[in-house]
Amino acid sequence: MAAHLTGGRVNIGLLREAARRELLSCLDECEGSKALVWDDELTGPFGLIAEYSLLKEHEVDAMFALAPGRLPKNSVQHIVFITRAKVSHMEIIVDNVLAEEKGQTNKKDYTVLFVPRKTLLCENYLTQSGVGFIAMREYHLDLIPFENDLLSLEMESAFKECYLEKDASVLYHVTNSLMKIQALYGIIPKIYGKGELAKGTVDMMLRKRGEVLNSKYQISSQIDCLLLIDRNIDLLTPLCTQLTYEGLIDEIYGIQNTTAKFPPEKFQVPDDKKTGPPQPAQAPGPKKILLNSADQLYNEIRDSNFLAVGPVLSRKAKKISAAFEEHKGAKTVSEMKQFVHKLPHIQAAKYSLATHTSIAELIKDHTDTESFRENLQVQHEFISGIDTDKVSPYIEKLIAVKEPLVKVLRILCIQCLTNNGFKPKVLEYYMREIIQTYGTDLFYRAITPLDAAGLLKATTARYFPTLRKSFHLDVRDVQEQHPRDISYTYSGYAPLSIRLAQHAARPSGWRGIEEVLKLLPGPTIDEIQHLPRGLHKRGSSLSGNSESGDGPQKVTLVYFIGGCTYAEVAALRFLSQQDNAPTDYIIATTKMINGNTLLESIIEPKPEESSNPFM
């Protein structure tokens, strides 16, 4: 079911197995037949941990969405609520339980399973609302494996909690996830980091490392280096438009827990032309497609710049056509049997090709628009330092025609970051135009939070030109179809976060760029975790990363605190695949994000836009 998690240098499948065991243990503690009531934002992550057939083996007879009112009719003995610790969810649970208990002769058992931990506020609310008989437990779900090199905490509001609300609980979850990784894969000897959150995480982790060191199940290190990156040291990258295949899918349609939804009309195949494995019946509505490396074609094209995807699809189509032609030349029974044996694989490949051809057509319809091209051109001009200190006619036009607010703010924040803030008159002009067009309440809902997050501000010291030059962020001779540099992921812009990872992988580490690092917010971390004798990984070096010729290729865990984009993941994979690459990369993040989802997590919704009935 999850074979695609086990093919990397480190067996990420172990994390999934650990999460499955803990979940099943929690369910087995709830005796009798069970109905699970889900916080809907947890169904996607849990779907990557345990399938329904497994839950049924542990007496789960029904599953419902968490919603006000009475639960659907059921005859189970135990109702288990699986939810995040939110008071609004506790209100719904109280409503459900009181309605369920009303008029019942056979009393049921109730458990609230908090993910990843309970809070005193939620405990007190349940106790004081007359349902103190509910059992309360915790399920410590942290990093969810998406791929054999990609893990996510899936904390939707992590960036806002960290940078606007100054809530340190995110660091608690990041630290716990790192402790679990070290328990499974050994202590990580070398630690780099940049930013206040990275420093807080390292301090917390070093205080707790005795838990791993004192374990009787100590294992040799499988991960050589940990690189912790605060999102606020590189706010520009997530705001820029990703141009990889997977990045564009996320930009246009959104990827949630390795699944995306597309317009169904592009995927309607006539009955007489249907090929590939039988597909489950799907309800009317968007076409849901699973996107992971179990699909060989997707694995091949996901990290490519979109301009390189068409030629690959064309070559695959010719190859599949040639394979189907083979049976015409088969003359013997043996040759026919060989073809029949290969047929399911060929049909599956044809179905995958049809799927990704349809997705590519949808993306091309979007990227071919004048609106998309103009926006991309203005982004690149700002990154190159062209007219960043003036009012942009393009942004004026977007406001005048009342383009979606997030689109306007996204390009505005790009200009602000590449100029290290706006001159007071320019900022005042933009604010006046936006508020007049989109409403006066916008100042408190959007402008103030964006300012607090460092995305929209007055002029500060002009350090971006130095960063652009020192880290070669603006690349002119980019080759999208045959890339030689990570800048292919944005067709000319090299993510600062990944440039930092490149420097960390050198034999000298970050020595030599200390002065430039001082331009970025927060402290710089360069730590060594000393290991018990006999646990050093063969070929590892505690003084830094050695070149590939000095021993086995290293493994580096890059952990983004505050979110990571699919284009950054693609850039790290690109580095791993180069000849003589000094290290392989595993990527962990608090959440997979893009420019839109980042801004949407910061901007306060209007009251009528809130999906929470208790807001």
Topology, please?
Blueprint: H1 13-28, E1 34-38, H2 40-47, H3 52-56, E2 60-65, E3 78-83, H4 87-101, E4 109-114, H5 120-128, E5 135-138, E6 144-147, E7 150-152, H6 158-163, H7 169-185, E8 190-194, H8 196-208, H9 210-213, E9 225-230, H10 236-239, H11 245-252, E10 255-256, E11 259-262, E12 287-290, H12 296-301, H13 309-329, H14 333-367, H15 370-383, H16 393-400, H17 405-418, H18 424-438, H19 442-452, H20 464-470, H21 496-504, H22 514-517, E13 524-528, E14 554-561, H23 566-576, E15 583-589, H24 595-602
Parallel strand pairs: 1-2, 1-3, 3-4, 4-5, 7-15, 8-9, 9-14, 14-15
Antiparallel strand pairs: 6-7, 8-13, 10-11, 11-12
- Work out the radius of gyration: 26 Å
The share of residues in extended strands comes to 5-15%
Low-confidence stretches: 270-276, 538-549, 610-615
Number of strands: 15
Write a structural description:
It is built from 24 helices and 15 strands. The chain has 615 residues and is an alpha/beta fold. The strands form 3 sheets. A 7-stranded mixed β-sheet has the order 6-7-15-14-9-8-13, sandwiched between helices. Helix 13 (309-329) packs antiparallel against helix 14 (333-367), helix 15 (370-383) runs parallel beside helix 17 and helix 17 (405-418) crosses helix 24 (595-602). The longest helix has 35 residues, at 333-367.
